[in-house]
Specification:
This protein is α/β, with parallel strands linked by helices. It is built from 13 helices and 15 strands. The chain binds pyridoxal-5'-phosphate (PLP).
């Protein structure tokens, strides 16, 4: 028997939805702003999902995509295409150190899975180490690499995990700061490696600056020690640059701000400024030769889609044309404005790099509510995000949401930075009084 259903206004099942959540319908975007279906304009202080780096409605990227469509819309990922090859060449030019060849993919999750597969095939070792409180994707493979308990709680009952974990270099984990923290956290990583059996480990995968998990940079010296440890034990270092790539931290890639060279680098989001889905893995000549000589039995239909690659070429030209410079010029003003928020008792810390910043809430190191421990409890930090959205400033919830992330498009000027932080400040006052 057929039943009568009342159709909802939107039949889309949203990603990362909470029970009964009602996200806005965004219909237009220009620069740092988006407009919803009721005509309200919002400052996009999170570049949607840390990805619209060039801002909305960029003509250069739109035109590049339209031109590709008029030539050929799709070419098999098993064949070569001039636009795809051109993007690979441009990526090789801007990539750190000896990284030279790109295996294109579609999403950040799939790029991380491909990087792990390439690293496993190269080393012959099965294991990968990732950090607790990390996010590397939401598909089964990448979700298994993710350290974030809410993602793992959704997947692990059905899939299990594919990674060993170690603690991130956070003062809360090691009760230390600065050089002491760098040393303790690196020693701990070495301890994990020796206990797992270094010959069983293909790679260590981590973000140069932790993105959604708190926008925290590592203490000085940490990455240098990690690089040394990887070299000592013949373990590959994979930099997940899905958020930190393409100018977000003030350099083309976040790992450059640490002056360390990874063996593989994964990217997504900002490569096209999110105008079309595209991701990839950059590798050096030895690993590239291993893939070419040995062949690679896996692939995806839409890996390196020509229209996405055209968007990538457009986006790179926009970044070259002053956007990365804009991040460098404005990041100290950004930091200065954010640090003013430390005057609120409810704000326990501010940290970040470039245009990627996190604001933590709580009393000292103690959050008001840890949603990973007490998911049912009302969380004032979630209220701050909703209040700011009501004031037309869109912010990101950190993982866990004891923190708020600010990551506007890289074209944000002084006014937008002040408007965004002003909106956050007003929301803090409204929630905490
Ligand atoms: C650091 C990092 N890696 C990987 C991913 C997964 O990317 P995607 O959502 O494109 O699969 C994300 C997504 O936010 C991310 O932040």
């Amino acid at each position: 028997m057929s039943q009568q259903h009342t159709k909802p206004p939107s039949a889309t099942l949203a990603h990362w939805s909470k029970p009964d959540s009602d996200p806005p319908t965004i219909v237009e975007g220009e620069g740092c702003y988006v407009t919803d279906s009721s005509g309200e304009k919002h400052l996009d202080f999170i570049a949607q999902l840390y990805c619209v780096n060039a801002g909305h409605g960029n003509e250069t990227i739109n035109d590049a995509m339209a031109e590709q469509l008029s030539k050929v819309a799709y070419v098999s990922s098993a064949k070569h295409n001039d636009t795809r090859d051109k993007l690979a060449s441009e990526l090789a030019e801007i990539a750190p150190g000896r990284l030279s060849d790109t295996f294109f993919s579609i999403s950040g999750s799939e790029a991380n899975e491909a990087a792990v597969q390439i690293a496993r095939e190269y080393t012959g070792a099965p294991k990968v180490l990732t950090r607790y409180q990390s996010y590397h994707g939401g598909t089964y493979g990448a979700g298994g690499l993710t350290g974030d308990p809410s993602t793992r709680a959704a997947l692990e009952p059905y899939g299990g995990t594919s990674a060993g974990r170690f603690l991130p270099p956070l003062s809360t984990a090691f009760d230390a700061e600065g050089a002491e923290l760098a040393q303790k956290a690196a020693n701990h990583l070495e301890y994990v490696i020796r206990n797992e059996g270094h010959e069983t480990i293909a790679a260590i995968l981590m973000e140069p600056v932790a993105g959604t998990s708190g926008a925290y940079p590592a203490p000085e010296g940490y990455f240098e020690r990690v690089r040394e440890i990887c070299d000592t034990y013949d373990i590959l270092l994979i930099a997940d640059e899905v958020i930190t790539g393409f100018g977000r931290c003030g350099e083309w890639f976040g790992i450059e701000t640490e002056e360390v060279e990874p063996d593989l680098l994964t990217f997504a989001k900002g490569v096209t400024s999110a105008y079309a889905p595209l991701a990839g893995v950059l590798v050096g000549p030895e690993i590239a030769a291993n893939v070419r000589e040995g062949g690679y039995d896996l692939g995806q239909t839409f890996g390196g889609h020509p229209v996405s690659c055209a968007a990538g070429l457009g986006a790179l030209s926009v970044y070259r044309d002053g956007l990365i410079e804009n991040v460098r010029e404005r990041s100290s003003h950004f930091e200065h404005e954010l640090r003013e928020l430390e005057r609120y008792d409810a704000v326990s810390g501010v940290r970040g790099r470039g245009f990627l910043w996190g604001v933590t809430f709580g009393e000292g190191d103690e959050p008001f509510v840890d949603p990973w421990v007490e998911p049912e409890k009302e969380n004032p930090v979630t209220e701050v995000i909703s209040e700011a959205a009501d004031g037309n400033v869109l912010l990101g919830g950190g993982r866990p949401t004891t923190q708020i992330i600010c990551a506007p498009p890289l074209c944000a000027g002084r006014e937008e930075i002040e408007e965004g932080i002003g909106g956050l400040s007003a929301a803090i006052e409204s929630v905490f009084g």
